[in-house]
Amino acid sequence: MSPSRDTGFPRADAEHDFLRARRRQVLSRLAKWLRGEPDDVNIMLPFTEVVDALGYQSERRIGARVIRLDSIVGSVDRGRDFDRRFRPTSARVRERWERLALATRRGEHIPPIEVYRVGELHFIIDGHHRVSVAHALGLSTIEAYVTVVRTKLNPSGIRFRGDLIVKDYRRLFLERVPLTGQARAAVLVSDPWDYAKLGEHVEAWGFRLMQDEGAFLDRARVAQRWHDEEFVPVVAMLRQADLIGDRTEAEAYMWVAGERYRLIRTHRWDDEVIEAVRTRRT
Fold this sequence. Notes:
By secondary structure, the chain is an alpha/beta fold. It has helices spanning about 10-35, 45-55, 95-105, 130-135, 165-175, 180-185, 190-215, 220-240, 250-265, 270-280; strands at about 45, 55-70, 70-75, 115-120, 120-125, 140-150. Helix content is about 50%, strand content about 15%. The protein has a six-stranded mixed β-sheet, sandwiched between helices. The relative contact order is 0.11.
């Protein structure tokens, strides 16, 4: 955003700042409609839904910090007064907004905002108007009291509200199949529903394993053995047979596992199975 103008009349400039921010918000809505973008593109991420999807672990207050404005992506109260870039969505906030803009232009002290930090993302507890004014005035940072929230999943990859669906299903999958370390990072799918199907598949694999060995295995042990004894060898065969394509490794595994049983009615893996699936594909 270009710097706000300064005519030497702070009150008039503050009024102009608000009108310009409102105009840009309306133009952004129009552009979204013309491009046919989903509704969540300009909506702030809701803090509660993000933390629920990622799995809450703990939180601690770390005090005042200077944070980047572009790292603030959401809100605790999911207010509708501002869009994703904190532009006013109506004239309802105008009086308070212009009062803050005027104080900022005059160099008056503006109290720090309050935020939750999840990974590198920040969610406003208090200070929506202050953030909106800071954006409108072309600032890049703002002072904030920060509370760090730790979650089970890393929030990387979250941009829009729709991304939370994938995170939520992945969290549930990892509760059913508690992979760790590199194994945890390797098993990824794009369609959130595939996490549910893969979880069911691993549980069935674990049940057959326990039947074969005549011993009970907890979820963590089943997850580890499935990854080491089933997933890794199968993915290696798929790479050798050039059957992964543009899928993730987990998506390729799910596809070939389904084809294997549908075509051959077996749970075993060998060259004959891979060749049958390859022949079927071509």
